[in-house]
């Protein structure tokens, strides 16, 4: 048995997969079992009671987590003229037009977020086949196609995240790092769930949040009681 398998087996004995834990208790379990040699992320999986074949029921959007994600986000900006200066001031990692296209083609995982001014979208569209599957194609609905380049970059750096359900109706997202204070993790979690709730379609019937689990990068999932949040 490998070291990784032994570690996971040891962790799993501390969690009842059939039990639904209070969120504070669940976070305590994650902190206790996070023994990796790096600062693990805390991830959430939200199983929604939606019909993903109905476009109006699909959920996607952005939300600013009050305590950030703890993750260093690499931001690329497609912009011209004055917006280039604004992007530099805001702290974007990569800025450009054709030259940025080349960098992305050479290294597809170069960026976590891409922001673009409206007049740059024509050129951004030429690499839609690269950006689309990775979920980082700039979009007005997500606020990543914007005339306010400076503030948008600042929001992303503060902890603005993008969320979207997959074909199974599950939203996967990061809500912090294992070294965050417990109350900060809970606050981020509440803000995310509230943002998702506000996007619920009137045509979605039945239980909306079917199951919510949290986990660390190298750990196992813990079912949490979202009803008392």
Report the structural category. Answer: alpha/beta
Q: Total strand count, please?
A: 9
Helix/strand order, N-terminal first: HHEEEHEHEHHHEEHEE
Q: Fraction of residues in helices?
A: 25-40%
Explain the overall architecture:
This protein is an alpha/beta fold and 229 residues long. The chain contains 8 helices and 9 strands. A 4-stranded antiparallel sheet has the order 7-1-8-9, with helices on one face. A 3-stranded parallel sheet has the order 4-3-5, with helices on both faces. The model has no long low-confidence stretch (mean pLDDT 92).
Short synopsis of the structure:
The chain has 229 residues and is of the alpha/beta class.
List keywords for this structure.
229 residues; alpha/beta
Present the secondary structure layout.
Blueprint: H1 3-12, H2 23-33, E1 41-48, E2 60-64, E3 75-78, H3 82-90, E4 94-96, H4 98-106, E5 113-116, H5 121-124, H6 128-134, H7 149-158, E6 160-164, E7 170-177, H8 182-197, E8 209-216, E9 222-223
Parallel strand pairs: 3-4, 3-5
Antiparallel strand pairs: 1-7, 1-8, 2-6, 8-9
Helix pairs in contact: 3-7
């Amino acid at each position: 048995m490998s070291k990784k398998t032994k570690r996971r087996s040891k962790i799993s004995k501390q969690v009842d997969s059939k039990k639904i834990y209070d969120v504070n208790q669940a976070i305590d379990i994650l902190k206790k079992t996070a023994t990796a040699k790096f600062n693990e992320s805390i991830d959430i999986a939200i199983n929604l009671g939606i019909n993903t074949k109905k476009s109006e029921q699909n959920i996607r959007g952005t939300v600013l987590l009050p305590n950030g994600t703890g993750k260093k986000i690499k931001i690329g900006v497609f912009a011209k003229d004055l917006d280039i200066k604004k992007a530099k001031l805001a702290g974007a990692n990569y800025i450009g037009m054709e030259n940025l296209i080349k960098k992305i083609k050479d290294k597809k995982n170069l960026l976590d977020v891409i922001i673009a001014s409206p007049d740059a979208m024509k050129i951004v569209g030429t690499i839609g086949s690269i950006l689309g599957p990775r979920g980082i194609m700039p979009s007005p609905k997500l606020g990543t196609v914007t005339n306010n380049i400076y503030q948008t970059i600042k929001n992303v750096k503060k902890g603005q995240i993008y969320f979207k359900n997959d074909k199974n109706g599950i939203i996967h997202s990061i809500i912090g790092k294992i070294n965050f204070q417990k109350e900060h993790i809970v606050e981020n979690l509440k803000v995310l769930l509230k943002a998702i709730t506000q996007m619920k379609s009137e045509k979605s019937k039945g239980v909306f949040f079917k199951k919510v689990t949290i986990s660390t990068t190298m750990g196992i999932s813990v079912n949490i009681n979202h009803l008392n949040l």
